[in-house]
Amino acid sequence: MFIVSLEYLKDLAAVATYLSEHIAYLERYYQAGVFVMSGRTPPRPGGVILMKASGREQVEKLIAEDPFHREGVAKYTITAFIPTKVAEGLEKYLETI
After folding, report:
1. Which residues neighbour 70 within 8 Å (Cβ) at sequence distance 6 or greater?
2. Helix ranges, 1-97 (H)
3. How far apart, in Å, do the first and last CA atoms of the chain sit?
4. pLDDT in tens, 15-52
5. What CA–CA distances, in Å, run from 46 to 31, 52, 59, 84, 89?
6. Sign of torsion, CA 73 23 3 44?
7. Which entry of 30, 36, 38, 72 is 20 to 30 Å from 53 by CA?
8. pTM here?
9. 62, 51 Cβ separation under 8 angstroms
10. What's the CA angle centered on 47, arms 76 and 18, to 5 degrees?
């Protein structure tokens, strides 16, 4: 599992320019079962995407497809983690060590 944190490098007007493309990008990978959840970080300096990816290489490949990355709107921090405990209903995300 990976946490991808986005930090905007440009103002919100620039972010808004590519927002519809970014949302389509998110939807594509929700449909593929790779993205688990995503959202803004208040007061809106960026956002977070939780990914169930095969490895860091896949995460980097997916980030490269994000319009925010392509247009230099955001920078990305990738954090890998192993979910060993989850809330009820999220058991499919458990990983064994």
Report:
1. 64
2. 12-17, 19-31, 56-65, 67-70
3. 13
4. 999 999 999 999 999 999 999 999 999 998 999 999 99
5. 23, 20, 18, 27, 28
6. positive
7. 72
8. 0.91
9. yes
10. 85
